[in-house]
Amino acid sequence: MGINLGDEFPNFKAETSQGDIQFHDWIGDSWTILFSHPADYTPVCTTELGAVIKLVPEFQKRNVKLIALSCDSVEDHLGWSKDIQSYQKCGGEFPYPIIADKERKLAVQLGMLDPVEKDKAGLPLTCRAYFIIGPDKKLKLSALYPATTGRNFDEILRVIDSLQLTATKKVATPANWKQGGECMVVPSVTPEEAAKLFPKHRVQDVPSGKSYLRFTPQP
Ligand code: BEZ
Known about the structure:
With 219 residues, this protein is α+β, with helices and mostly antiparallel strands. The chain is built from six helices and 13 strands.
């Protein structure tokens, strides 16, 4: 079973490396990224969780909380955290919790199991999924990567910027957009409304003669 964009994200209870949580209470008024990885003490996962540690200040600036998940125990998470911090050359408290989904309940509920990757006992592992959840607890974006492809967390920051901008402004972000770049006026905005909301917008001519390519400076 999966979860669709716009659905309320399940309000699960979980054991984590920072204690037990009730997910919606833990989210509070923040945006949240829940990201899974196949297993603790594995190489790509170590680079991924390390990369996320480095980006914590960027996520904090955007009011985004982070929470990881794998099917290993809290004990494993705590032991592996030290390796990640050593690899990343940083000390202190590990800056985000890791859910211990030992029984794979969440992995099944959220459709995160990878049919290819198995643990030593032959049980399926989680893929590299991520879910971006809004302060309204609804799913805004999700992605699934196989175990063999590590994620680009700068891209995840970029999509957070787009999601937060487009949540309040009637724009969409074009291919390869970055914070501060030109945006597109969304199709539902009439020409009259566009003139009021985005006085600096321009309409690009196209052979069809249709006026749908409307660019505006980022509002
Ligand atoms: C890794 O994190 O390196 C990994 C985990 C499972 C399968 C392949 C790679």
